[in-house]
Amino acid sequence: MIKQNLENILKKLPSEVTLVAVSKFHPVERLMEAYEAGQRVFGENRPQELAAKVPEMPSDVQWHFIGHLQTNKLKLVLPYVSLVQSVDSFHLLEAINNWAASNNKVIDVLLELHLGAEETKQGFTESEILALVAQVCEHIPSGLTCVRIRGLMGMATNTDDMSVVEKDFERIEALYNKIKALGVEGFDQLSIGMSGDWPLAVKHGATMVRIGTDIFGPREY
Hints:
Blueprint: H1 2-12, E1 18-22, H2 28-36, E2 41-44, H3 47-53, E3 62-65, E4 81-87, H4 90-102, E5 107-112, H5 126-137, E6 147-153, H6 162-181, E7 189-191, H7 198-203, E8 208-211, H8 213-216
Parallel strand pairs: 1-2, 1-8, 2-3, 3-4, 4-5, 5-6, 6-7
């Protein structure tokens, strides 16, 4: 079933868009089914679960962290991931940079834009992201020498109204294109779209989609 689900998605997904298999709450056995079907990029959102799964999976898996990351959990995540998609505050960005500096690494990150109507959502505002990027473009020293801002991440409003979702994607696409036009080195990733809305995300410039249920089925708690 997982193999068939992946094949069905990949038939429709443009080859230049990265499929991130959201594997949170699913056991390693199901991840291995996806791996054996050719999937190599997996997204986790809980530090302890990620750290437990890494040694159980093949070494060529690329792990992305896609959930809210507390600064006291960095050591469970940063040694293993190729990308932190969900950097939602300057405080977290600084903490990642400090950890990376202490461990002689450079960490690739996406800045999470607060999209949608939910007050509980994490993330930067457009103006905060533009201010951060301006520092990079103008070579203003920020001390962030061990993080590399690769792009933006966002989650649309949780609604069945696809016109609302599309407006959210239009908003983040516009910000992404504005920053791209500034010529920020290495800024080339837009992670939007999940199981219910990824075709719309692709229409609005997604370079990564984060799909869980359409691959693995309902979560196992």
